[in-house]
Amino acid sequence: MVGAYKLRTQTEAFWRDDYEVAEGDLDLVTSLILETGKPRRLTDLVSAIITARFERESEAAARQADQNQAIYRPMDQYQVGQELVFSAADFAVGRVEAVRPGHNPKYGDFSVVQIAFGEGMPKGEFAADFDYPHPLNRPVEELLTHADAELSEADMVRRFEHYVARKLEPSLEAHGDFILFNDLWFLKGLLPEIHVGYLNLAEAMIYEARHPLAAKEMLGDLDLDATGSPDAQLFALNHALRVDERFDNVSMSEEPVWYLRALEPEAIFERPLPLCVAFRAAGGEHIGLTMLDMVDEIGDELDDIETMVLREMSQIRVELCFPHLYAGTMPLTLQFLRTLPSTSAHHFPITLVDHKSGQKFVGWVVPEERYVCGLGDWYASLGMCVGGQLTVTATNDPLVFEIAAAMSRSRRREWVRSASVTGESLVLQMQQTRVAVRCDKNMLIDVVDREAVVQLMAETEAAQPSLGTLIHRSFLELAKLSSRGIVHAKSLYSMVNMLRRTGAVPVFTELTRRACYDPVGDGFWAYDASLEKMTYRTPVEMRERSLSNREDLIKDQVVEYLGR
Length: 564
Hints:
Layout: H1 12-18, H2 23-36, E1 40-41, H3 42-66, E2 70-71, E3 83-86, E4 92-104, E5 108-116, E6 124-128, H4 140-143, H5 153-174, E7 178-181, E8 184-187, H6 196-209, E9 213-214, H7 215-222, H8 230-243, E10 247-249, E11 257-260, E12 277-279, E13 286-288, H9 289-298, E14 315-319, H10 322-327, E15 329-331, H11 334-338, E16 348-354, E17 360-366, E18 371-373, H12 376-382, E19 389-394, E20 400-404, E21 414-422, E22 425-433, E23 446-447, H13 450-463, H14 467-479, E24 487-488, H15 489-496, E25 501-502, H16 504-513, E26 517-521, E27 524-527, H17 539-544, E28 558-560
Parallel strand pairs: 2-3, 12-25, 16-20, 21-23
Antiparallel strand pairs: 1-8, 3-4, 4-5, 5-6, 7-8, 9-11, 10-11, 13-28, 14-19, 15-18, 16-17, 17-18, 19-20, 21-22, 24-27, 26-27
């Protein structure tokens, strides 16, 4: 009926402001779980509470209508001792204890009745003989008609469930009888016991499988005592695995999938020291066009910025810097991240398939840290080096990738730069060694004692030298190995990453804006100590390099990096 007075349970104000979780609501939750013997979602419990409250109020309204009791309306007159039904107060029944005169300058004279309600409800005073417009001055049949034709029970649940959920969840958490796992609520008394022997067996099963397992895959072999329903057993096992520190839920969906922390790389939980970021791209840097190509070739995750245009790429290419080689990780660039399923998980496994051997192994994606870890053993098997070139290719399965590192065709030992730590310095010299994998020769620096370099990185990080200082030191160290005293930009990036972790863009930006460095073609740069304190400020100055003392320098076209 149009204009009918709504029950309180049909109003937002009740659920938002007045509703409190009652013992009866918790009893209802208990009954729902006992009825099926299955865990229930919070949304199911909330829906049941809203529906039950509405039905109780509807039934109370119907009973009052059948008993023909007087319905309180401000317009009517009442006598002491008369019983009234208050439709706006959950159809509570009250008795008139007193009647006195009332007056309002706007409305004039009327009456005030004092009402005593049942136990637990305070007395109240209400207007009577008040024949002015008021929501309750309606025909009695309208006040007893609760149904809003346009508001079904499903509509009520959809509109009000968030208010109830916000109050019900902490009540369940505080109550000793309920237990939560994975957004499912269950009764502690229905849980079968999962003792340490079962968990030890689960650990052995995962260790033998060497890949994550769902609890339901393990349940059959655990031979649990025949107590509780299968759903209760599954809930109990998942909950026990969650609270045991040996196990890690690596699922990307609602169904938990368990692995062993002991089999996971430490880099999942703590960023390795060489990967601690000192310098990264911020956007708006100015570098040469040829340098932009080098940034793409290197594929450093620190050169990604949120405003960059992402290209569709089925294959990701990377030239490995020392920090990633040491940590057994590879960059998780925005292009790589874009090929992966969207998830809020802190980390999750992907399958990497060696292009040549077909060997499969698990790589661990850590989106927040922007790397994939777990490649250390694979690197070691290949003889991977700094500057080694990797390709990762997507497959039809979004969690399976083919990974390749081309092997070097040469079996001869080559003269390459070799890094060693002397005192507090990183020193380079030429040494003969065999390079096992195909690499970018400008990036290549052989590292015999990797731990010594990592220790030097820790000391350098503690000292916090500027990027300009590191580039100056590295440039001079690299230049001594060149007959012309020139250094490739990639070589500089590679060596600086053995001192502090940086992207390529910050290094290339320093080269571009410092007048003491001049491009001589093919990515090589020369150094002029007389211009050490001079800096170019604008893109035009960087392009023209008017302070250069070398007439034969090839002028780089300087563009704004990702800032146009």
